[in-house]
Amino acid sequence: MYDELKFDNCNHSKDPMVGCALEGATGVLAGIKDISIVIHSPQGCSSTVSAAYDVHEIDFTKRKVACTRLFETDVVMGASSKLKNLIKEADSKFKTKAIFVVGTCAADIIGEDIEGLCRNIQPQINAKLIPLMAGGFRGNLYDGIELGLNALFPFIKKQNEKIPCSVNLIAPQANLNPTWWADLEWVRETLEKIGIKVQAVLPHDTSLEELDNAGLASANILLSHDAGYEFGLKMKEVHDIPLILSDIPLPIGLKNTARWLRAVGNYFGVEEKVEAIIKDGEDLAIDVLRRRGLMMIPRYRNCRVAVSADATMGIGLTRMLFEELEMIPELLLFRSPVSDSQLLLENELTDMGISPKVVFSADGYQIKQSLMESCVDAVFGSSWEYYLAEELGIKFVFDVFNPTNRQNYLNRAYFGYEGMLNFLENVANDWERALRSKHIDWEEYS
Amino acid sequence: MAGVANENVVFFGHLSELYQLAKEGKIETKLQGSHTRPCKFWTAMKILSGIKNTVVIAHGPSGCAFGVKQAYKLTNCRNSGSPYESIITTNIDEKAIVYGGEKELKGAILEVDKKYKPDVIFVATSCATGIIGDYVDAIVNKIKPKINAEIVAIHCEGFAGEYRSGFDLVFRQIVQLMDKPDSESRSRLANSVNIVGGKMGPERTEIETDVKELRRLIESMGANVNAVIAGNCSLEEVKQAPSVAVNCTLCLDLGYAIGREMLDQFNTPLNSTILPYGISATERWLREAAKHLHLENEAEELIKREYEAISVEFEEAKKYLAGKLAIVEGHDAIKSLSIAHMLERDFDMRAVIYNFHPWSTQARETSIDYLLETGLDPEILITKGTLAFGKYEAMVQTENELMEYLGDLNPETTVYFGSSMSFPNIPVVDLNAILNRPRFGYRGALKVAKCICTALEYSFRPRSWVTKKMVFPEDSGLCSAQSLTPKLAQDLPDCTVYAGRERGKCMMS
C-alpha cells in the first residue's frame, strides 16, 4: 500500500507549505462576485486576504476589502465601534450586496462578538452582513476552505425541486495547478457537451444569484481531494443533493479521465456521449505524442520520481506517471493531511501494486529530508521543490505546481486530454533545460 | 498653477505647515480602512530575512510564517539565487490558544536547534501568542543554556505598533547579538564601515543596485564594508559590527534605529543623512563617513573623480532641467522627500510632492524632523482622493485629481516623478523601474538626469493606451493598481517581492 515516513524533531516545529485558515476561508469568499470583505484584524492579515484574492487571480479592480487595523489599545479595550464604523463606510463606498465580516486571530481571541454586532447593525446596512470567525489558529488552508464554504449556506435557498442533469462544482480552488480555473473550465465544458448543466461553482466567479439557486442541482461534484468533502456531505444533509465521484481520482491522465467521465456518464445515463469524448480525447493525445513526444518513452521509462503536491493533483498524477509514462513513483509528498482521501489513495496504490514512501502534511524540512534520503531521479513539484532539489543535486525538477516559476499568460488545464498534453509539455521543456550542459571543460576539446 | 485652488485640494503648502497641522490634529493622520501596510510582524520578518544561517520561529498559527516565507524567502530564492530557507511555525491551534503555547514553543526551539543547527534562532511572536500572554522571554532565557544556537526573542505582534516599528524593533534587537568592541577589534576594523538599514537578503547580481553603489563608493575611498545590516549579513559580521569606524545609513529612516542603538551602547559613530539621491546628498554622506575613517582627503579626491566622470553629461542635462517643475509622487514619504531634495538642490527644479498621506508625518516622524532641520521644506499637495476610502496610491479619483491639478501645465516644462502606472499628460520618470538604477551617488544622479531627459525627449509620444487600460479599466470604481497589499516592494530592484503564485509577478499587477 504505502510506507508512511516519520521524522524526528518535527512534533512542535513546522516549516509550512500551506497558509492558515484565514487564507482558506477568504479564498472562498474571493470567489463570489458582488461581495466585499471587512476584516477585523491588524493590518498584516489584509496581506493574507490579498493572497486569497490572488488564488482566484482577481484583478485589482474587483477587490473590495477594508481592514479595521487593530492596535494594542483595540486589543485591550475591544474595537466594536471601530468595526461598526468601518462596516458603515464599506457599505456606502463598496455598495455590494453582501459584506462578509471576518474576524482573524486577534478579534477571535479577544472575543469580539462579530455575530451579535452584525445582527444589531444589520438594519442600518444595505448589504447583507455575514459574520465569519476565521482566526488562523482554527487550522490550515484546507480547514479554512471548509469554514468559508460553510459560510455560504445562508445564501443557498432550500429547494424542493431539483433540475435533472445539473450539478454544482465544489472547491475548484483547492488545486495546485497554477491556472486551476482552466481545470474548472474543462469540467464545465465537458459536462455541457454531454448535456449536464453546471448550476453553480462553489465558488469561482460566482454570483449571489447562482449561489441562491445552488439548491436546485441534482448532484454535487467535488473538484478537490483536499477540501470540500465535509461541505459536500452537509449539502446532502441540508439540501438533499448527493455528493458524487469523490471516491475516484480527478481526471488527470488518460485512464483517470476515462474513469471520471464514465462515472459521470453512468450517473446521468449519458454513457454513449461520454464514450465519444473519451475516444476523441485519447486519439488526440496519442496522435500528438506520436508526432511530438516519442522521445518520452525511453526518457521516462523506469525513472524514479517524487511527487510533491496536494492530493487533488498527486493522487491522479501517480497513476498517470506509473501506468502511462512507466515511471516509478518512489515518494509521494502531500502538503495536505489527505484526511478525507486516504482511502482513495490506499485503493489506488493497491490497485497499481506499488508501495511508495508517503508523507502527509509534508513541511519544507520533511520534503528536503525525504528527497535527501530517497534515490529519485526527478521531482514533480513547485518552485519550492525546485530550489530544494537543486540544492540536493537532483537534476530533473519539474516545476508544475503552485507556487511556480513559470509565466502563464494563457490558462492551461491539467485535467482532461489537452490537460495531459499541457502537463507533459511542461515536463518535456524542463527536461530539455535540465540537460543543457553548463560546465563543459572546453580545454578537454582543444 | 492651474487647479490649485480647486475644491478637491485638502492641503497645499510646505511640509513644515503640514507637520504642524498634523501635530495639532487639524488634518486627518489616520490611514483609511482600505489603506493597509504590512504589520509589525511582516516588517520584523523582512529584516530578519536578511541575516544568514538563522531560523525564525514564528510562535503562532501557520499563516503568519507561511505568508512571510512565501513573500520574502521565496523572493530571495527567485531573485538572488539563495538556497531554500525555512521559516518555522509552532502551528498554534485552538487548544494552545486555551491552554497556552509554551510547551509548543519549548519543543520547537529544541527541535530547530537540532535539525537546522543555525547560528541564531529568533523567536517572533504573533498576535495570537501575544494576546494569550505566552511568556516568551522566560522560555527563551531558560532554554538558552540547553541549545547551541544563540537565541533572541522578538515581540512583533501585528497589533503592537505601526508597520515601521517592526523594522526599528528588530534592528534594536540585533544589537543584542553584538560584541563589545575592544582595542584589538577597533584597530582591525578601523578602516571599515557598516551599511545599516538593509533588509531581505542578497540582491540580484545582474542589477546595479543602490546598495552596490554605496559599497563601490566606500571601497573607492579606500575603506571596506564589514556588513550590510541586515542585507545578507552573517552572525560573525554582526558580532564585530560595533568595532567599525562608522555606521552609514542606507536609509535614514530604517538605519537610524540600529545606528542610534549602536551609538548609545558601543559608541559606534553614526553617519545618518538623507538618502544619497543626487550630488549634494551624496557629498554629505561621503564626507560624514570619511570624517570617522580619517579619509577626508581620499573622500575629496573621490568626490572630484566621481563628479568629473559625470560632469559633462550631468551639466548638459541640468541646463535642460533647471527651472522646470517636478511633481513627485509621495507614496513613499522618505524617498519622495529625498527625490525632492535632489531635484531642488542639484537640478534647480521646483518640486511639489503629490499624494503624500499625512499619516507619514507620524509614521516617519524621526526622518521628517531631520529633513526639516536640514532646511528641506518642499511643497506638498494633498487632494481628497488621498484621504478617501479606496487606494490612494493609484485610484481613479487621485489620478483624476492629479490631472485636474496639472491642468494646462506644459508637458515640455513639467515632469512627473512617480510610478509608470500613473498616466499624467506630462513626461513620467519612474525611478523604481528596474533599469533606472543605481539611483544613489553620482552615477545615480546622472542616471536620474538621463531618465528625465529621455522622458522629456519622448514627451511627444502619447502614453500607451494598452497599459492605461490595464491600470484604469472602465468602471474601475475604487480600483487601484496597488490593491495587492504592498509589501514595501519599492525597495527591491524590481518590485517583485510578493512572489506568490508566479515568478516575476509584479506586486502591482
TrEMBL record, chain A:
Nitrogenase/oxidoreductase component domain span: 20-431
Gene3D superfamilies associated with the record: Nitrogenase molybdenum iron protein domain
GO molecular function: oxidoreductase activity
Pfam families assigned: Oxidored_nitro
UniProt xrefs under InterPro entries: Nase/OxRdtase_comp1, NifE-like
PANTHER family assigned to the protein according to its UniProt record, in alphabetical order: NITROGENASE IRON-MOLYBDENUM COFACTOR BIOSYNTHESIS PROTEIN NIFE
Record's protein name: Nitrogenase associated protein N
Annotated organism of origin: Methanosarcina barkeri (strain Fusaro / DSM 804)
From TrEMBL, chain B:
InterPro entries according to UniProt: Nase/OxRdtase_comp1, NifE-like
Name under which the protein is recorded: Nitrogenase vanadium-cofactor synthesis protein VnfE
Coiled-coil regions listed in the entry: none
Domain (Nitrogenase/oxidoreductase component) ranges: 39-456
Source organism (scientific name): Methanosarcina barkeri str. Wiesmoor
Gene Ontology molecular functions: oxidoreductase activity
